[in-house]
Amino acid sequence: MEEDTMLLIFSDLKQAGQIYWMKPGQVHSWYFAPETDGYVLNFNEVFITSICHNPHFIYDFPMFNGIAAAEQLAPETFKNIRLLLEAIHAEYVQQGKEYKNDLIRAMLVQLLIRIARVVSKPAQEGLSANNHAWLRSFNKLIEEHYRKRRRPKDYADMMHITPNYLNSICNITTGNLPAN
């Protein structure tokens, strides 16, 4: 696959069926105990959006727009997702297979849809379509300008809204303020 900039982590971190993900732009390091079993999927935005017309497709999934960070899967859901992850891994390790990346992309989209269907509904409360659009714009601006612009006021100005309104949107949708 291409250079990793977006992360989705699936692992039996504490108990079977636990899934953890990171939205684009987050950077972390991990330490896994030797007995840890699971999968780590790294992919960038271009890898997944190259098969669809919407360049911001990835942000339509609740796990990548700042709403949620982890989920405990029901046993049947865990079984289905694990089978899909095993299929992705099997395709990834194949050498010289025609359309390899395309098949991985298709399975990855299926995986993301299955995960999005089970993301906690309480985590999505308060996220109107309008707030979702504002949050997406804010996250995109951060990705583009984080090295030069640090203050929430700068981003509010670029979005043509007040800093207080940006604070409100972030607080309602993520539980955090823009400075966090």
What does this structure look like?
There is one protein chain. This protein is of the alpha+beta class and 180 residues long. The chain has two domains: 6-124, no CATH class; 129-174. It has helices at residues 45-49, 75-93, 100-118, 121-124, 129-145, 152-159, 163-174; strands at residues 6-11, 18-21, 38-43, 70-72. It has a four-stranded antiparallel sheet. Strand 1 (6-11) and strand 2 (18-21) form a beta hairpin. The chain is globular and about 50 Å long.
Strand-helix topology:
Layout: E1 6-11, E2 18-21, E3 38-43, H1 45-49, E4 70-72, H2 75-93, H3 100-118, H4 121-124, H5 129-145, H6 152-159, H7 163-174
Antiparallel strand pairs: 1-2, 1-3, 2-4
Task: Write a concise keyword list for the protein shown above.
180 residues; globular; four-stranded antiparallel β-sheet; 2 domains; alpha+beta
Total separate domains: 2
Structural class: alpha+beta
**On the 0-100 scale, what is the average pLDDT?**
77
Q: Strands of the largest sheet, in order across it?
A: 3-1-2-4
Shape: globular
The span between the termini is 31 Å
- Strand and helix order: EEEHEHHHHHH
Instruction: Specify Rg, calculated over alpha carbons.
Output: 17 Å
Strand content: 5-15%
What helical percentage do the residues reach?
40-55%
Major beta sheet summary: 4 strands, antiparallel
